[in-house]
Amino acid sequence: MSSPRHSLSRRRFLQISAATLGALAIRGLPIYAAAAAHFTHGVASGDPLQDRVILWTRVLPGDGQADTLDVQWQIAVDPQFEQIVAAGDTQTGPARDFTVKVDAAGLTPGTSYFYRFTATGIHSATGRTRTLPAAGAAQARLAVVSCSNYPQGYFNAYREIAARECDAVLHLGDYIYEYADGGYANADMLNKGRHVQPEHEIVSLDDYRMRYGLYRSDADLQAIHQAHPFICVWDDHEITNNTFQTGAQNHNDGEGEFDDRRRAAIQAFYEWLPIREQGNVEDGIIYRSFDIGDLATLIMLDTRLIARDEQLTHDMNIDTLRRGLADSTRSMLGATQQQFLANELRRSASAGIPWQVIGQQVIMGRKEIPLVADVEFAEDIRPDIASSRYGMLRERGQMGLPFNLDAWDGYPADRERVLDLFRQHANNAVVLSGDTHSSWAFDLHDDTGEAIAVEFGTPSITSPGFENFMPLPENELVAAFMRNSPEMRYMRGLGRGWMELDLTRERIATRFLYVSTIMEQEYLVEETDPMLTVAGEHRIR
């Protein structure tokens, strides 16, 4: 994972480079003209291939007036930039919110590099990145994250990942949240000053840009971007809650046309994240693939925006809900993306690559509504849940209905189509998921009970888990879910953190890692024992 040519450790690199971080400034704060240019949000890299990687920064002119700014970039094999291997020039300006993004090519596979930007003679912070390995690599490590809500807590997990070794960070969505200040926030963190900007719910391009600027001003988020290349997809909160192709649960009257909001959110996403652009950005095509040597093909999908039909809900009457679940035409991927998935699975497997890793947003494993008795809520936790919302859910759970209709459980026919693609075309399919803020592991079976694939769902960075929705003692919560969900192999409703996958040709070892707190900036890290998936078995040992 670290280049054999240099012994500078990740932690030592971060210690050295911390002193050179660009000014922490969110979009819209005053510009201080003592310097001719200001790198305001650190640096980042992303979408690594074997010979290239996206480099990112943001730089403002010192007087705040320039229409364009000339920017130079360099990549070297040493942090002193004595051995520069690639360099170039570009421009930025207000049309892209003074963000800079270049696709730096001509690099060597499986190599760590250092990079920086320069404007008007002023250097940015130095970042560290890495190309994907070529065929013959013995192992690789991926860190998997999702759901980082700024006013819910400190991004301690990001800081910890920055100091560890990995080949790439997969962000499975909910990189930002759209809510107004005080909405979906932790009161203690608001008292500590973690307020969002703008203060209102974000709807316009300027709103989305400012919210990204706030998040990217966070020192821990800057640190992880500075240390590792990211591979990102969006989920719903990069636009608004429970997005689907033509609307969203949280797009309301008075917020304008949904298409305008969608277009603004997509533009800001591409401006502020180190993602490689494909065709017309407005089309929102983010599904793509990466070959990690000949160990694995990583296939990143969009289950949220490009083709998803509107979600079913438990507020529907039971007959309407059952008809919706039985409707075989309802889709999450759409025909074009499904064909892309089939083609990539087939290409990867025919090349002898053992693992086909699917990075996407929502849980694929089956989760029925847990049958928790009313008395458990009434006596132990909160009687209001027993008498209202959960009472209705428990009744539907007794009918064997799924828990989360926003996940693949709400689109069972489309899930069967995807599992059939895994069966036909994949050597070993491993699904990675975010969205729920909790930790999961599943053996994925088709409708006949045949083992097809495995799935791991990452916990959130800060967003709250089941303690906010179903505040049972953890052991009771886990037992209730696992009683009704035979595919489920692991579940943890509490705990903020991330996953790590260690890949070899023979097996994948998956660990869940948790920080002890997000309410303070001092923390401990807890790691689970690795869960092993052996090639050819299609199950978790």
Automatic annotation (TrEMBL):
It holds the Pfam family PhoD_N. Residues 142-512 form the PhoD-like phosphatase metallophosphatase domain. PROSITE patterns: TAT. Residues 41-131 form the Phospholipase D N-terminal domain. InterPro entries: Metallo-depent_PP-like, PhoD-like_MPP, PhoD-like_sf, PhoD_N, Phospholipid_Metab_Enz, TAT_signal. It comes from the Bacteria. This is Alkaline phosphatase.
